[in-house]
Amino acid sequence: MKRVILLLALILAMVSSITAGTLASYTVAIDNLAGGNVVAKEFIFVGEGTDTFQEGLKIAPSETLQWQFKVKNYERHVVTETDMYYKLTFDVFASPGKKAIDPLTVTVKDGTGAILNQMTGVGTFDLLGAFPLSETGQERNILVEIAWPDGGKSDKDYAGKEFGTSIIVNAQASQVPLDSNPNPETPEGQVSVLYETTTPWQNGQSGEYQYQYKITITNNSSVSIEDWYITFLLQNDRLNNAWNAKLISRSDEGIYRFENPAYNNVSMDNILPGQSVSFGGLASGMGTETLRNIGVGGSNTSLITNVNVMHQP
């Protein structure tokens, strides 16, 4: 009887062992199957020549002062390894403890002398630019010109130590496009800009595609924009000329400045409240690119950058 009991116990142990084996899971480990690392691309944005800016310089009516500097996307032999977009912000304000010299006009020009932006009095404006990806380093020369036009007898009211104007330039760079800061005193939609382009055609001689463009600026405010001008960025297409406006400058990176035609016609040189002005011309490209970084200004207003933009290709 005892032998039978022992035999049953052995069989039960074997069945339990087999069952446990069938329920066990397999685990496989592979150490260091693959590996790698990444290194940040070089991103270099430096300024040179800023030591030309001086403090305490004196200026009088009919005099002009100039400061210049440059921004670069390289340092020695190391060049930025991405597209680079930059924004220069010019802040013109009354010097601490003083009143601003209101007649002063600040003009920013590029290396060729083309006007990029201009303002009279105090305020803030932006200058946008870009360095496309390239194996060689690039740089932009910037000239800041401060002029005091001879305004007559009223100029004597600004004489003395209690008047002074200061200028500070801040710079920012990014791998993605930057926008101008909206003017906080400009309401939404004070100005609208409509950019219209025709169906492109291929030039039989050059083989390049061309189209006609039309830009319409509408003043939605209750104040006239006198001696209007417009700036914007159009990097790929190229606007070649203009009708009913003056093409003042076109930079290598695609920053344009157009001004009123100076016909001595109020309805064309000024944008009256609720009214529009239009200009156009011939362009090279496909006409599908939209205007960006638009600013509209005039002799009686600072640059308006909070603009409603519409594009109708």
UniProtKB/TrEMBL annotation:
The keyword Hydrolase does not apply. Pfam families: CBM_2. SUPFAM superfamilies: Carbohydrate-binding domain. GO terms for biological process: carbohydrate metabolic process. GO terms for molecular function: hydrolase activity, hydrolyzing O-glycosyl compounds; polysaccharide binding. Residues 184-304 form the CBM2 domain. Keywords: Signal. Residues 1-20 form the signal peptide. InterPro entries: CBD2, CBM2/CBM3_carb-bd_dom_sf, CBM2_carb-bd_dom_sf. This is CBM2 domain-containing protein. It comes from Desulfitobacterium hafniense (strain Y51). The lineage of its organism: Bacteria, Bacillati, Bacillota, Clostridia, Eubacteriales.
